[in-house]
Specification:
Layout (H helix, E strand, L loop, with lengths): L1 H6 L1 E5 L10 E7 L6 E6 L3 E8 L2 E9 L4 E10 L10 E8 L2 E9 L1
Antiparallel strand pairs: 1-2, 2-5, 3-6, 4-5, 6-8, 7-8
């Protein structure tokens, strides 16, 4: 699964090479479906936003490339759906007419 997510990963440097080694960077993760899926981030990563871009649900994440990796499971839950999973962090709500999806992360 990680290889699949990494294939859709876009990286934009905030530091433009001013610092050597670890740096804060914003990465974009294009999710493959609305089903739960695992992504690898860095410790203390901050998920900034969840939005649709070109009909794909994407996450934008601020992270420090020098931190160790952590795995998260992303859950996308529709309004009115039953919730029977552990939800650690609320990421955001997105609309895909006529649906409204609520995005959460679970730390694994």
């Amino acid at each position: 699964m990680e290889a699949l997510v990494q294939k859709n990963l876009c990286k934009f440097s905030m530091c433009q090479g001013f610092f050597r080694g670890a740096m804060k960077t914003i990465w974009k993760y294009a999710l493959e479906s609305l089903r739960p899926q695992e992504i690898t981030l860095r410790k203390n990563a901050e998920i900034l936003s969840a939005q649709f871009q070109n009909e794909k649900l994407c996450l934008w994440v601020l992270l420090d490339t020098g931190e160790i990796e952590e795995t998260y499971r992303i859950h996308i839950i529709g309004t009115g759906f039953n919730i029977n999973v552990k939800l650690d962090y609320y990421i955001g709500t997105v609309q895909q007419d006529p649906y409204v999806w609520h995005v959460f992360a679970e730390v694994l």
